[in-house]
Amino acid sequence: xxxxxxHGQIDGPIHDGRLHDVxxxxxxxxxxxxxxxxxxxxxxxxxxEARDRVGGRLWTREIDGAMLEIGGQxxxxxxxxxxxxxxxxxLETFARYRDGGNVYIDEAGRRTEFTGEQLPMPAATxxxxxxxxxxxxxxxxxxxxxxxxxxxxxxxxxxxxxxxxLEGQSDDELARRHISxxxxxxxxxxxxxxxxxxxxxxxxxxxxxxxNLVDSEFILDRRVVGGLQRVPLTLAERLGDRVVTGAPxxxxxxxxxxxxxxxxxxxxxxxxxxxxxxxxxFSRIDYQPPLPRRQHQLHQHLSLGLVIKVHxxxxxxxxxxxxxxxxxxxxxxxxxxxxxxxxxxxxxxTLVGFVxxxxxxxxxxxxxxxxxxxxxxSLVDYFGDEAxxxxxxxxxxxxxxxxxxxAYAASYxxxxxxxxxxxxxxxxxxxxxxxxxxxxxxxxxVDGGIRSGWRAAEDIAAALGGR
Length: 467
Fold this sequence. Notes:
By secondary structure, the protein is α/β, with parallel strands linked by helices.
């Protein structure tokens, strides 16, 4: 087989007449974690990746001399599969900077500096947010995140949008708006009317509770020195020439004995196939014979959200001079949240901010310079005039990335999770599925991708008879 180049496409076709135990499609953390477990168990595995790099939605790049984490980057204490993998690969982590005051801007444009996790709210609204948090925590506690469709109130919660559910729970519009912010804009990156209350409860349950989900001290705890993409890069390096980049898969011809996987680099045979990529891309592959009706329907009810991840690099972290942490929130600003994202032992300061769902739609319709001006204006509102002139400015646009087409992850439309969720991992003959979008614990996070890969590897090893 041709030698793998992790950072560039390999020239020439694949010359491989072997029958592999497993062909893995996708070299993100799910596919590479599964391939690692299967290889360790003695199975013959090949991984085909469409891009000219590994990592999927993890991508650490140097832009104008600055190292930026274009995709996922955070490590939280509950993400034990990710932490186990980081430790096994010999990688180091460092804590996110969080000393000093946070910033909040209200609907009237009033800017408040505060400490702790509680946003500065009127006492009545603060109490209502605490009450709603308890309601969501109780619903999440009753859910097995690996089987949200089995929740005692699954159909009731899944047939109402999260926005409508919140309206039925509280008359306090301000409390509803802020509870919605943490799941809609910050996590699922879709408007709260576009997904169900059950999907929102899964988002909370996947992190252990809604309380964990809204605690930035917890959920955005640490980063990997050198970038989180070092996880898939190191996994791929250890797998060696089992990983082939620049090989988009176009067709899977499958029967009871195995499958032929046809890519732009050639064809590979396998006894089992693992499709490990975002589910919105599943239908880009031609399956022969076609997938069953249930899978066709399931895949049509899943879609990715949309978010712009904004990186602004300055000659120093000037906000720290003002006693600020770099953390800021406002559902009334284009950039709804921002954090100090300075790299380990880098004297420069980096802010990262996020523009989600319909707000992202609106600014993507603008010329690039006007979009930049409006986004930086939000950072100025939070941190002062110095935020207007970064040395490096970059927007992560996963929605236009050919082999992703959105961010952060896929979620179901209203009614889809309870209707189809139980079948999302069901193999179709010799074809199995894995991705962070199908994870329970760690849903839409790297931790969930690793768990999904491990679980698929266990299922495939059992199907292969422990060979």
